[in-house]
Design goal:
Number of domains: 1
Strand order of the largest sheet: 1-2
CATH class: Mainly Alpha
Helix content: over 70%
Length: 329
């Protein structure tokens, strides 16, 4: 696949994404002053807007799209995503997000939690306004599954369990892939697309979402903090084991396996330990393995689109798949 730069990904729906920014700002202005300040801080930090872009692109495969209804769904997906970022940063004790101070460091953990709750509530309100009951049911199930995945992840970390690759894939399915899959399906649903197209787009979002999260977890080991837009190594310091480390703990040779186990248990506390862990994982082929798994899943996503007509929207989805496996941040 040809490498695609992120700014060029969504040109076909750039007008909709520009309108989304205005919509989010206008919606925020209706909130009370304190909420506007806190949520506005996160909104000003920007973001890829991947989920609403998927809504807009998927809607291109429908027959009767109502722009206002599609916009509400797209805005709701971004609000839910913003809420999860706020809560994730609290759980991870992250100081920076997108190279900007996180909400809880600027205000407080309590304020940040409440801001996240506000965004969840507002998103569900927007979905209810569409008068499409399935939209609210779908996204409430997404939030429930994301919480389930986070709880599963953190309980396993507390218990010191070594997850299998299957455990890991189930967890990231709940945390990431389902959201992207349902964003695709919802866009198609709201635009009156046939059920088979909804299923195809859901499948694309699911496989791409798994690949996206694996690359994200890989970058947590290999990227620089500046490029990544947040501190690297957060998962390990939280006791969360992701695919590169899961693979390394099983496939590295002794005595490096024992050393890797000790580093993982100590959460590679210092810079020297972190560099040592990176070296072991590199020699054991764990980074390459994770990249290969991500590439396989993204190829599955790409192949799923073969049955769709060759349109600008389909080309944009294919470009996004290429970006997922090539991205460096």
């Amino acid at each position: 696949m040809v490498k695609v730069e992120f700014p060029n990904l969504f040109q076909v729906v750039r007008p909709e994404l520009n309108a989304l920014e205005t919509y989010l700002q206008d919606d925020l202005q209706q909130a009370r002053t304190g909420v506007r300040e806190v949520v506005g801080h996160l909104l000003a930090g920007g973001g890829k807007r991947i989920r609403p872009a998927l809504v807009f692109l998927a809607a291109r495969f429908g027959r009767s799209a109502d722009p206002d209804q599609i916009m509400k769904v797209a805005a709701a997906t971004e609000m839910i995503h913003m809420a999860t970022l706020i809560h994730d940063d609290i759980l991870d004790e992250a100081m920076v997000r997108r190279n900007v101070a996180t909400v809880h460091t600027v205000w407080s953990r309590r304020v940040a939690i409440l801001a996240g709750d506000y965004l969840f509530a507002r998103a569900l309100g927007l979905l209810a306004e569409t008068r499409e009951p399935e939209a609210t049911l779908i996204m409430s199930a997404v939030v429930r599954q994301m919480c389930d995945g986070e709880i599963q992840q953190n309980v396993a970390a507390l218990d010191g369990e070594l997850p299998t690759e299957a455990d890991y894939l189930e967890r990231i399915g709940k945390k990431t892939a389902l959201f992207l899959a349902e964003s695709c399906r919802l866009g198609a649903l709201m635009a009156g697309a046939e059920e088979w197209k909804q299923r195809v787009l859901y499948t694309f979002g699911w496989s791409m979402g798994l690949g996206f999260q694996i690359v994200d977890d890989l970058l947590d080991f290999t990227a620089t903090s500046v490029a990544f837009g947040k501190v690297v190594g957060v998962d390990l310091r939280s006791g969360v084991l992701t695919l590169p480390l899961i693979h390394g703990l099983v496939n590295s040779e002794e005595p490096e396996r024992s050393r890797l186990t000790k580093l993982a248990q100590a959460r590679a506390a210092g810079q020297d330990e972190w560099v040592e862990m990176q070296s072991i994982l590199g020699r054991s082929g764990s980074f390459a393995y994770a990249q290969n798994v991500a590439q396989r899943l993204v190829r599955e996503a790409v192949d799923s689109l073969d049955v769709l007509p060759p349109t600008e929207a389909r080309e944009a989805l294919l470009s996004m798949a290429s970006y997922v496996v090539e991205r460096e941040a």
